[in-house]
Amino acid sequence: MKRVPCMEAVVAVLESEGVDTVFGIPGAAILPFYAALRTSSIRHITVRHEEGGTHAADGWARVTGNVGVCVGTSGPAGTNMITGLYTALADSIPMICVTGQAATAKLHQEAFQAVDIVEIARPVTKWAVQLKEPAQAPWVFREAFRIARSGRPGPVLIDLPIDVQRGTCLYDRDLDAPLAVEVPEPPPRALRAAMDLLETARRPIILAGGGVIVADACDELRELAEHLQVPVQVTLMGKGAFPEDHPLFAGMAGIQTQTRWGNAAFLASDLVLAVGARFGDRHTGDLDVYRKGRRFVHVDIEPTQIGRVFEPDLGVVGHARPVLAGLLAEARSRAAAREPGRWVRRVAELRGTLARRDDFDDVPIKPPRVFREMNAFFGRDTTFVTAIGLYQIWSGQFQTTYLPRRYLVCGQAGPLGWEIPAALGVKCAHPERQVVVVVGDYSFQFLMEEVAVAAQYRVPFVIVMINNEYLGLIRQAEIPYEMNYAVDLHYGEGGIDHVKAMEAFGCPARRVELPGDLREALSWASAEAERQRLPVLVEVMVEREANAAMGPALDAVKEFEPLPELVTVDWSD
Question: For the segment 324-342, what is each residue's pLDDT rounded down to a tens digit?
Fold first, then answer.
């Protein structure tokens, strides 16, 4: 085999693993890697902050299903990546962070920007490793891709000392290929037991989590639901796993991102088949209320997830796609496809009678009206990106999604500022798609410098800002304490003129204060983004006192009367 610079071998591995774009910031301790990158087919996007680079790689990974890659130099570059690593780990996103490092001989001498990033990153990665020998370089990266993709996907950090980067290794890219990733098959007896429980249930639902999307198992989910005529709910991370205009869609249950009719349907169910869902606390709320009166089958690719929050009646370990395909085969072997029964009709009735109102004409604008206009204007193939705060809760409650990998949200970690760089990654992966960022005024300010990156590289997307001039979710949480810690953000009192900020980046922006102007503003932003190939902002001034409906438990029945019979009446045929 030919002896080559080891970083050239690394870049060859990246290319063969399907990486076409990486996000990062060059620095002295990572320059040998960058030198190898110059002669590759891989596009490099220079971000303004390493955290932004991780979120961009995260967004790229979420829409492609492949492993996202971000790069930084030594010291603070690596520590700036920790938030992005945590976010990827929490949401099961395959990603590799590459960091430069001081020379090996200097690591114990407190050299400039030398920090033990491997130990810092270990709790928020599936694997954190420092390259010790040039000869290991391509093989460490091969293993990193395998680990990032395997089981429950997640992030890996590889630390590259500068002296090791400068080494050579024997490598022939024609003799190398990606490592196989195991797809765990479920035990047939477990599938039969799960189907037995489904058949004896009177009001079953399927709960689709983010694992269904990660596994590309949405078709299998739909086919199983249609054969059994079982309603399907989604978690926040599972939005898009099942079309929200499908007759079997049963909404979302939860204490924040939920639908009232979804909560009602969940409380009326007697069996939950949860696939690729981790039972997060914002979904379950009070576990006594969540579990009462129903049995649970929990399907997950990661064995230790089963029983972590509560003990299910049946646990099934397996990849979501073969599990759902196996359940469908088992169902077909037992009976022909069913017709919709009373339970399906009852869920449809709940949807028709318990939907939240969104047609407000009030001034200031009520947040639900913003999502009504977005739902009406943007097409089914639009990719929405949102992060954390009141606007995420409203998005989960009101925004409709039809296709997988079209609704991206940072779920468990919830870092403010995630959405702008994530949208950059999405648009780099799929330049043909329309991308819409739903952001709050405070979150926008966390990483708004990444707007400059999108402007520099001509990456167009629409930003819809829900601006209540407050740090809204914190203000809502502070109300019982009768305090306000610097959460007032209106202009002249700590707030930013976001229209002028966007114009400073060279990007168009418009402020909307009347509900009747929303549709035209969205049309303008969509056209200008494509015409100028730039991010475009529509800042919507909403009522300042707007709160998101939240509670300590799935207490949807308390929101409307009369429906006390939901948990006792048999709605099946």
Answer: 999 999 999 999 989 998 9
- Which residues on adjacent β-strands are paired with residue 101? 161
pLDDT in tens, 349-367: 999 888 888 888 898 999 9
Instruction: Please give the average per-residue pLDDT across 248-262, as a whole number.
Output: 89
Contacts by residues 111-115 (CB-CB < 8 Å, ≥ 24 positions apart)? 112/75, 113/29, 113/73, 113/74, 113/75, 113/76, 114/74, 114/75, 115/74, 115/75, 115/78, 115/79
**Amino acid residing at 347:** V
In sequence order, the 6+-apart residues with CB closer than 8 A to the CB of 409 are 236, 237, 239, 385, 386, 387, 392, 395, 396
Q: Could you tell me the CATH superfamily of domain 367-541?
A: Thiamin diphosphate (ThDP)-binding fold, Pyr/PP domains (3.40.50.970)
Chain mean position to CA 331: 31
Which pTM was predicted?
0.92
pLDDT-based confidence at 472, cuts 50/70/90?
Answer: low
In 3D space, the residue among 199, 206, 220 whose CA is nearest the CA of residue 324 turns out to be 220
Q: Is domain 3-175 annotated with CATH 3.40.50.970? A: yes
List, for residues 128-179, the tens digit of each pLDDT value.
999 999 999 999 999 999 999 999 999 999 999 999 999 999 999 999 999 9
Which carries the bigger pLDDT value, residue 437 or residue 414? 437
Confidence band (pLDDT; 50, 70, 90) for 569?
A: very low
Residue with tokens 């410098």, as numbered in its chain: 449
Q: Within 91-204, where are the H helices?
A: 117-121, 137-149, 162-165, 188-200
pLDDT given for residue 560 in this prediction: 34
- pLDDT tens readout for residues 73-92: 999 999 999 999 999 999 99
Angle formed at CA 348 by CA 345 and CA 349, multiple of 5 degrees: 85
Task: Report the run of H or E that residue 160 belongs to, with start and end.
Answer: strand 155-161
344 close to 331: Cβ distance less than 8 angstroms: no
Instruction: Check residue 363 and give left, alpha or beta (phi > 0: left; psi -120 to 50: alpha).
Output: beta
pLDDT of res. 567: 35
**Length of the chain measured in residues:** 573
Weakest-pLDDT range from 169-173, 415-419, 432-436, 515-519: 415-419
The CA distances from residue 516 to 359, 438, 441, 548, in Å, are 11, 19, 21, 23
On the 0-12 / 13-18 / 19+ scale of CB atoms within 10 A, 260 is buried
Q: How far apart are CA 101 and CA 73, in angstroms?
A: 7
Alpha-carbon span 372 to 369, nearest angstrom: 5
Residues 6+ positions from 309 with CB-CB distance below 8 Å:
278, 279, 284, 287
CB atoms within 10 A of CB 565: 9
Pick the CATH number of 188-356+554-567 from 3.30.470.20, 3.40.830.10, 1.20.810.10, 3.40.50.1220: 3.40.50.1220
Spatial CA neighbour of 540 closest among 368, 359, 355:
368
The structure tokens 């409709």 sit at 400
Q: Where in the chain is the domain with CATH 3.40.50.970?
A: 3-175, 367-541
Which residues make up the CATH 3.40.50.1220 domain(s) of the chain? 188-356+554-567
